[in-house]
Write a structure and sequence with these properties.
alpha+beta, three-stranded antiparallel beta sheet, about 25% strand, flat
Length: about 80
């Protein structure tokens, strides 16, 4: 049986990527001036995010971090 050499990705093949991105809804946001925020990292569970935010607060004590549930997708800063 000949192979299709002009094969292009179908929508069903890109769907698992979107699903994988939706798994990491817990995020750590760095609070910036003027009520802005920057997403620093994303996690699947809240407990993972809480543990990492404690680490960040020890490493960077003068910055403000917050654990948020983020259903909107943004690119992580780190």
């Amino acid at each position: 049986m000949p192979q299709n050499t002009e094969y292009t990705a179908t929508k069903s093949e890109t769907q698992p990527i979107a699903y994988k991105q939706r798994l990491n809804s817990w995020a750590i946001a760095r609070l910036l001036p003027d009520t802005q925020r920057e997403i620093v990292a994303r996690f699947r569970s809240r407990s993972d995010a809480d543990g990492y935010v404690q680490h960040l607060r020890q490493v960077i004590p003068n910055a403000s971090f917050m654990v948020v549930f983020d259903c909107q997708r943004e690119e992580a800063a780190i």
